[in-house]
Task: structure prediction
Amino acid sequence: MPTIFRNNGKLTEITWFEKEPPKIHLYSPRKRHVLFGARRPDNARRTRQICVRRVFAGLAEFGTPLLVTLTFKGDASDASYANDSLRVFQVRLRSKYPKAESLFVPELSPRGRIHFHGLIFNVPLSLGDTRQGGRTVSIGDERKTRILAGIWGEGYVDATKTDGSGKLAYYISKYVTKSKNQVMFNAMRLLRISRGFPADLIIRNKFADYLAERYSVKKPAREFSREHQFLGQVTKKTYIQGYEPQKQ
Result:
């Protein structure tokens, strides 16, 4: 049974396939077709998985990030313009902070206004507010200096300090699920990641089997099995370092 071992910081995923995955065939690129309906569920699920993996990898590589929300002061219903604005912001952010890395997901408000939720790594944490629940305990420098708002240049930036825990990965990825059915987001990416994020550590074959055996004594955070059209029975276990299973 083929095995794939994938690691991103404190997140480890082990997948078993009943049948050997088919070899990848490379084809010449075709003209991209415009999507008129909602994204396919499997595409949205894959994007959410990538988001979770990348956040865990970023936490391990870069440390504690700021949790930020980017909003527009003017018209916020043009998805193509919003996508370009976010790309420019990430370029400007790197110019201000050369080691900065960021990850963003769009959301549509009930009033139909686009905004972005994301994480920014390798910037001063003093910019963010300190919050406990819904209450602001201390005010960050961003409220005074508007450094990030100046880099954004499109409106307001809300910045909050985080604890750097893995819960951030699932908090950010939930916006992928919320946005997958928004047809207007077909003109933009549901997940925009800066280029400096570390790649997945992927191991296959015998060494993957050896690592899977080592992990077999641990309690997985998540586990599921499903039947795949081409791969047969697929079983996946997810392990999170520091995860403590709840006692029944």
Summary: The mean pLDDT is 88. The chain has two domains: 3-21+201-240, 41-193. The helical segments are 41-62, 79-96, 142-145, 147-152, 167-179, 205-215.
